[in-house]
Specification:
Blueprint: H1 24-42, H2 44-60, H3 64-71, H4 75-83, H5 90-100
Helix pairs in contact: 3-4
């Protein structure tokens, strides 16, 4: 007589969850988008400044690189300011308004 034990199958199916592996670029982009959304809701003034800076630069007819050269910062710094990723120091804020020949308060309205 054989002594095999019969296994009772339960009604549950095993689900193989595949682990999704993302690239570092995806993870970074995702964190940046999340940070942008969170910052936008909590810091509207920063994004208002960013929008106004971009509009003022375009109205002046100059590129980010040209504006950066006028105030002695890199083009990437201007890009970060216009995207709302960073806020300017007070001296940079003043330099931006002088270079664009606008009232500094107009960048915050």
């Amino acid at each position: 007589m054989s002594t095999k034990k019969s296994k009772k199958k339960s009604g549950k199916k095993k689900v193989n969850k595949k682990k999704v592996v993302h690239t570092i670029d995806y993870a970074t982009d995702h964190r940046v988008r999340e940070a942008g959304r969170n910052a936008f809701s909590s810091n509207a003034l920063q994004f208002r400044f960013a929008k106004n800076l971009r509009k003022a630069r375009l109205d002046a007819g100059i590129t980010q690189q040209e504006l950066g050269a006028k105030i002695s910062v890199a083009q990437t710094h201007i890009c970060l300011l216009e995207s709302g990723s960073i806020i300017p120091r007070l001296d940079t804020f003043e330099d931006l308004s002088k270079a664009l020949k606008i009232d500094p308060a107009s960048l915050l309205r």
